[in-house]
Amino acid sequence: xxxxxxxxxxxxxxxxFSVLDALTTWAGVRRGFAEGNPVIASRISNPxxxxxSFALFTIxxxxxxxxxxxxxxxxxxxxxxxxxxxxxxxxxxxxxAFLLTGTSxxxxxxxxxxLLFSIP
Length: 120
Known about the structure:
The protein has one domain. It is built from five helices and no strands. With 120 residues, the chain is mostly helical. The longest helix is centred in the first third of the chain and has 28 residues, at 3-30. The N and C termini lie far apart (42 Å). 75% of the residues lie in helices and 0% in strands. Pfam families: DUF5658 (PF18902). Residues 13-101 form the DUF5658 domain. InterPro entries: DUF5658. It comes from Thermococcus profundus.
């Protein structure tokens, strides 16, 4: 896979998780949950500032991903950064989904396991 294709893949995944994080955070705060990030929490009262902050952080994240892929041509260890960064962006989305659905990670694992291995 070429550097350009790989960079676009990670940038797209990061963007999708960023949008999902913004939407689930917004929904959670509207339902009464507290935002743990003080930078985002200070902007939650104004939708323009809130979503603008997420857009800015997304642009910075994509720039870091593309820069690290370019840097990986000279320093191979930098190639580990993009998938790790995307994973770190996915974690708040999963956490927000647990909070919004009221599901614990253990309950979700047991339900999924039960559905996958149920005997007819």
